[in-house]
Amino acid sequence: MKSAFLAALVTVLPAYVAGQAQEYDQCGGTGWAGPTSCVSGTTCTVLNPYYSQCLPGTAVPSSVSSVSSISSHSSSVSSAPSTGPTGTPTPTAGNPWTGYEIFLSPYYASEVQAAVEQISDSTLAAQAATIANIPTFTWLDSTSKIPDLGTYLANASALGKSTGTKQLLQIVIYDLPDRDCAAKASNGEFTIADNGQANYENYIDQIVALIKQYPDVRVVAVIEPDSLANLVTNLSVQECAEAQTTYLACVNYALTNLAGAGVYMYIDAGHAGWLGWPANLSPAAQLFTQVWTNAGKSPLIKGLATDVANYNALNAASPDPITQGNPNYDEMLYINALAPVLQQQGWDATFIVDQARSGVQNIRNQWGDWCNIKGAGFGTRPTTNTGSSFIDSIVWVKPGGECDGTSNSSSPRYDSTCSLSDALQPAPEAGTWFQAYFETLVSAANPPISA
Ligand SMILES: *[C@@H]1O[C@H](CO)[C@@H](O)[C@H](O)[C@H]1NC(C)=O
Ligand SMILES: *[C@@H]1O[C@H](CO)[C@@H](O)[C@H](O)[C@H]1NC(C)=O
Ligand SMILES: *[C@@H]1O[C@H](CO)[C@@H](O)[C@H](O)[C@H]1NC(C)=O
After folding, report:
1. Which positions carry the signal peptide feature in this UniProt record (predicted)?
2. What is the CA(45)–ligand 1 centre distance, in A?
3. Are residues 270 and 394 in the same domain?
4. 156 Cα: distance to centroid of ligand 1 (angstroms)
C-alpha cells in the first residue's frame, strides 16, 4: 500500500523536481518567481509583460503576431514606470481595450433579437435591433453560466483567427457566497453556512481553467459588484458583518487566480451616491488598496469599476436634486475624488464606468433607488475616448433589458425597492428579460439611437 503510493508519487515528481511548469500553467511575467521552463510538448510563450504561459506545441504559436504588438505597447509602459510608496517602480498595464475588438455576447444578441420581434412600431424595432451590436458584459452569476464562457472563448478565438482582429471578452465575476448581503434581489446560489467559500473557489477554478485554454483572447472582468462597497458602509447589516471575512478571502482568491490567467480586472466600487460621499472616500480607498495589496499588487488589477448596473451620469449637467449636496454628484467627480486618495496609498488605479442605462437623469425619487427606474434610457456608447486619464473606458456592464429585480412581493428574492413608485412594474425576476423596460431604454436613449 505504502510502496504503491510512493511509486505513484515518483511518477508524478519528475516534472516538479525539474522545476517545469505544466501545460497551460504560468511560466513567466513581471514578479513571477515560479518555474520558467515548460514540460515537453509545450513552449513558454510571452502573452503580455505580466504573463507567460506553457502552450501546446514546440513551434512558435500563431498568436505570436499579437504578442509582438503587445510587447511594443509594453515598451512605452516600461519607459515610464510609476513609483509606488516604497520607491520601487510599480509597472502599470496599459489600457486593455487598446488594439482589441470587443466580442459581442451571442446571448445578449439573441435576447435583443427576440425583443425586436415583439415590437410592432417599425422605427422603434429598427432602433432596438442596433443594440445587439453594442458590447455588454457577460454576467457569470452562477456556475451554470460557466459553460457559456467556454463557448464564447472558443467563438472569440475562432473569430480572432479568421478576421485577424484580436478579440476581447468582457465578463462579470458575481457569485460570492451570501451575495448581495444588504439587499435581497440578487442573492446567489452559495451560502457561507453551506460550504460557500469552497464552492466559490471551485467556481473561480473552472473559469480560470477555461480562460487559460484561450490565451489569444483577452479577458476583462468586473469583480463582484456591490461586495466591497457593502463592507465599507453596510457592516451594520448583520449579514454583511458575518460575510466580511469570507468576502475578502473569496475576492482575494478571484483576483490572484484570475491574474494568474492573464485577466485584466476592475474591482467594483459602487457609485458616486454610495462611496462618493466625502466621509466614505477614505475608508473606501483604504479597503480597495488593502485588497489590491493582499492580491500581490498585480498590474492586471487595473483599478475600479463604478456605476455598475446603476443610473448615474458620468458628467451631469447640474446636480440631480436627489444628490442632496454631495459635491461628488456624478461619476466623474467621484472618480476625480477617489483616484488621488488611492494614489496617496500607492495605487495608480484606473477606472471603467457603466453608462448602459444612464442616458436620462433626474428620474429617481432617492439616490439609493436602483431597481428598474422608470424613464431610463440607454446612455453613452462604450468608448475608450473618455475625457479622463483616470478612465480606461466607458462600458455597458449591465445588459439593458435584463431586469434588476422582481416586484412580486411573494417571491423569495423580492426587495421592496423594486416596488417603489419610481420602479417600473410589474417586473420579473432579476436577470430575466423585461420587455417593457427594454423598449423605454431604446426610445429614451441619450444620445438617441439612429436606425
Ligand atoms: C461557438 O463555439 C461553439 C462551441 O465550441 C460551437 O459549437 C459554435 O459553432 C461556435 N459558433 C460560432 C459562431 O463560432
Ligand atoms: C447600505 O449603505 C448605504 C449607504 O450608506 C445605505 O444607503 C443603505 O441604506 C444601506 N443598506 C442597508 C440595508 O442598511
Ligand atoms: C409571485 O411569486 C410567487 C412565489 O414565487 C408565485 O407563485 C407567483 O406566481 C408569482 N406571481 C406572478 C404574478 O408572477
Report:
1. 1-19
2. 26
3. yes
4. 9
The reported pTM is 0.84
| Other C-beta atoms lying within 10 Å of the C-beta of residue 117 | 10
Structural domain boundaries, residue 45: 25-55
Does 42 share its domain with 190?
no
Note the pLDDT tens digit of each residue in 216-249: 999 999 999 999 999 999 999 999 999 999 999 9
Q: Residues of 398-435 as b/e, b for ≥16 C-beta within 10 angstroms?
A: bbbbbbbbbbbeebebbbebbbbebbbeebbebbebbe
Q: How far is residue 312 from each of residues 87, 242, 329, 357, 367, measured CA to CA in Å?
A: 37, 30, 9, 8, 9
Atom 11 (ligand 3) nearest CA: 408
| Residue ranges at the known binding site | 139, 141, 271, 274, 310, 370, 398, 402
Distance, C-alpha 380 to centroid of its chain: 18
- CATH number of the domain to which 301 belongs: 3.20.20.40
